[in-house]
Design brief:
By secondary structure, this protein is mainly β. The chain has a single domain, classed as TolB, C-terminal domain (Neuraminidase, 6 Propeller). 1% of the residues lie in helices and 41% in strands. The strands form seven sheets. Strands 3-8-7-6-5 form a five-stranded antiparallel β-sheet, with no helix packed on it. The protein has a four-stranded antiparallel β-sheet with strand order 4-27-26-25, with no helix packed on it. Strands 9-10-11-12 form a four-stranded antiparallel β-sheet, with no helix packed on it. Strand 17 and strand 18 form a beta hairpin. The longest helix has 4 residues. It is globular, with a radius of gyration of 19 Å. The N terminus and C terminus are likely disordered.
Length: 361
Amino acid sequence: MKLALQGVGVVLLGVASLSIFAHEAASPIMPVVDAYTGWETKKHNLSEANELPIWQLPNVDRAVESYFSPDSKQLIFYAKSKASGAYHINIASIDGRSVNEINDVGNDACSFFFPDNKRVVFTSTMDNMDMPRGNWSQVGDYPQGAELYTANVDGSNVKRLTNNRQYDAEVSVSPDGEWILFTRETNGMLDLWRVRPDGRDEIQVTHSPDLQEGGSFYMSDSKTIIFRAWSKAEEHDRNRGMNIYTVKHNGSELTQITNDGQVNWAPYPAPDGRHFVFAKMHPPYNFEIYMMDIVTGKQTRLTTSDAFDGFPSISPDGELLSFSSSRGAEKGSRKLTIFLMDISSLGIGPVVAQQVVLRED
């Protein structure tokens, strides 16, 4: 949720996605790929030294920002359409055997599954094509026609949640399914908001006078929100920092988690409720993925590539990490696609309460 590309370097500007730069064309919603193409033979290790096993998601090209389904068997993301050249929401099985485009109108960005595994929420400009396209990656030029929508996982039953012709994006859903969490820009200020899945009860979560908040997700308790923010006063400073925070969803207990003066962004909580993954920029512009323990503050580096690695997310079972990367792309290319990492050895899966069984002797 969160970056821009400037010159030959990657410069973080803290938005929902990469720039979308294509026109739309009418085409039916249909499977992009619907056949087994030898995934096991393609699942070769693309890891660098000191990395856990990594492989590329097959049959997906030019795709960004993927999140797992509740059963950990699918990913939702936005990818460049071969038909229109625009970026649209796709759902793929984690083995790449099936990839389905579920929207083909407007320009799409962030998306997320509901916990029932039957519906999704996403951001799109589909109903505001008369407005300037804007740039998802440029501070001050975010698409003001970006609205929130829900749909079934096959793309049917699309329902619009917001209707304000502002920037509503960077969307996710609470684990209990009660709230949709998103970023809204009003008069140049970014804040976190939440709304019911049917569009009722819009509530502003953050009201910070200087922080530009976004890229937010509920943690496993469905009460605590983790997000990234930068200073409004410094947002046009090429060398500004960015930090990760938590806040209760009623807006209380704002807590800064990172404080190293670096660019820390795109946090995503682990199912154990204690860890999270995020991207950190190493000077000059090398983005790597880290894991952090909120309790101890310990940070563990997960990627060591010269390529861009960002937008990490963790499967609900704690077995896989998904991330967007330029690995394998030509030098100087901005092309990103989706990779998977086996993180089963990290032990950050859901915590199962122990059952105490009382027996009568």
